[in-house]
Design brief:
Helix 5 runs parallel beside helix 10. Helices cover about 60% and strands about 10% of the residues.
Length: about 500
């Protein structure tokens, strides 16, 4: 009897499944406008051979920068949060996958003792006043995926999982670039402060020269006061730079997921500004779609939404359900007992099939199809716009990098000329062949040009970081990772400590 019921429950799904089909559109990789080449393709210093740049920061040959990015990638709280979203998406995929299979509604069991009063029992010969009743039932039901509703749900959730993985990779790209930008700015500020302090020293000597000449009656007090003015003006540039430096340190500590007091353990204060290489590799526009994780994420979001159109279409058709139950029951009357519960005569069973069809909700259901399709079209336009914007970002970054190089070259020559002018003007002032206004002018120019050159050198390094960011560098293209690879060790330990249900997913 049991085998007969099981065969009945098992054969019907196989017969029905043979007629199943997945409604709705099948996703195809969308087209997007892609240029054949970058606008600056003929510029020197840029190599257009393909490169993935998984660890682009190593081109600076700066161990401190390497250590900072490594720390951020293992401890940054926003990145950890993105990893946990991958874990959630994987669980959602598991939920959707489970709905494809028969569902156990419930397993019930009971043991009852029934006592009927004498006045309530009119047929003593058929029913005893006091008896026990024992039941054990197992119920099973399955909505046959006749139109592919559940398969489309799995398709959607699978794409969403890939989108979350791509989102994690996109955050790694942004995080690496943010750390590098903050580090470059920190080194730039440190160099600007050092230069300001050097110029303060030079201007202090100039003030002393003017003061000595004034005491000897060679110049008026005006020279002394003018020297003091430019000296204090240079001194006044240092506190704002120190304030900015402190803010950058705090930004770095947040990016690294540590307290500001702990930054000194990973940051060498005596380091210098990272130097860009003589030539950089940027690849071609066609490489962006493969490399940039935000573009890959947008494509996966399109795939997920395409499946949602199919889910919406299936709601227009009937849902077929099959199921059944099997149970055993016995009493302790008429010579029976609880031990008879597993006898074949104690078995009862039920097999059913049916369907539900929302025939009077077509206005709602059809509008849901329209909504899902319009949502897909919106995501498609957003995807095309993202690809277009990505190419513009790369062109802008390359152009800015090259122009900063040209600016630095001119400023280098300007600084050399300004330093020589200060040297000559001081000599002429000591000898009395030049007035103090010439000295003040050359000192001011030297301070401004040195600061501008240092800031521009920092801009060159920052622009290179931007290039690698907009190219999508900072993650391994094509690398296969398990779900637990997206989680920090701390999160894995805390998850395992709260519940045992991570054992098959998060290895010890």
């Amino acid at each position: 009897m049991i085998r007969k019921v099981i065969r009945s429950l098992g054969l019907l799904p196989i017969v029905l499944l043979s007629a199943c089909a997945s409604l709705g559109p099948d996703f195809e990789t969308p087209e997007a406008p892609i240029a054949d080449d970058w606008m600056q393709a003929e510029q020197a210093g840029v190599n257009y051979q393909a490169a993935d740049h998984p660890e682009w920061w190593t081109v600076f040959n700066d161990p401190v920068l390497d250590r900072l990015i490594e720390t951020a990638r293992s401890q940054n709280l926003s990145l950890r949060s993105a990893g946990l979203r991958v874990l959630q998406a994987n669980a959602q995929l598991g939920i959707a996958t489970g709905k494809k299979f028969p569902q156990v509604q419930q397993i019930t069991g009971s043991a009852s003792n029934i006592n009927i009063s004498e006045n309530g029992n009119d047929n003593i010969s058929l029913l005893e006043n006091n008896f026990a009743l024992y039941n054990l039932d197992f119920g099973l039901s399955w909505e046959v995926d006749f139109w592919g509703r559940f398969r489309r749900m799995v398709e959607s959730e699978s794409a969403l999982l890939q989108a979350e993985m791509a989102g994690y990779n996109a955050m790694m790209v942004s995080l690496s670039a943010e750390v590098a930008h903050a580090y470059v700015l920190l080194r730039t500020l440190q160099e600007r402060i050092a230069l300001a302090e050097q110029n303060v020293t030079v201007q202090e000597r100039t003030h002393k020269i003017a003061d000595v000449k004034h005491r000897n009656g060679q110049v008026t007090e005006l020279d002394v006061q003018q020297a003091l003015t430019i000296l204090n003006r240079t001194r006044a540039t240092i506190p704002p730079l120190q304030t900015s430096l402190n803010q950058v340190r705090n930004v770095l500590s947040v990016l690294l997921g540590i307290l500001p007091q702990e930054l000194g353990a990973v940051l060498d204060e005596s380091g210098t500004m990272p130097a860009p290489p003589a030539e950089i590799a940027v690849g071609m526009p066609q490489d962006l779609i493969r490399r940039r994780p935000d573009i890959r994420r947008a494509e996966w979001m399109l795939a997920a939404q395409s499946a949602q159109i199919g889910v919406a279409v299936t709601e227009l058709y009937p849902h077929f359900n099959i199921g059944g139950s099997i149970g055993v029951a016995t009493t302790d009357i008429n010579g029976k007992s609880a031990s008879d519960i597993f006898d074949s005569d104690s078995i009862n069973s039920l097999l059913f099939g049916g369907f539900t069809w929302s025939v009077f909700n077509y206005g709602t259901l059809k509008n849901n199809v329209r909504f899902q399709d319009a949502r897909f079209q919106e995501l498609l336009v957003d995807y095309q716009n993202l690809v277009l914007s990505a190419q513009a970002e790369v062109d802008d970054a390359i152009f800015a990098y090259l122009q900063a190089h040209a600016q630095a070259q001119h400023l280098t020559e300007s600084v050399a000329a300004a330093e020589r002018s200060v040297e000559l003007s001081l000599i002429q002032y000591r000898e009395g062949s030049a007035d103090f206004n010439q000295v003040l002018s050359t000192l001011t120019q030297q301070t401004e040009q040195q600061d501008a050159l240092t800031a521009t050198n920092g801009t060159i390094a920052a622009d290179l970081v931007t290039i690698y960011k907009v190219l999508g560098g900072g993650w391994e293209v094509g690398a296969e990772r398990s779900i637990e690879d997206f989680l920090s060790e701390q999160d894995k330990q805390e998850l395992r400590s709260r519940t045992k249900y991570w054992r098959n997913i998060l290895a010890e």
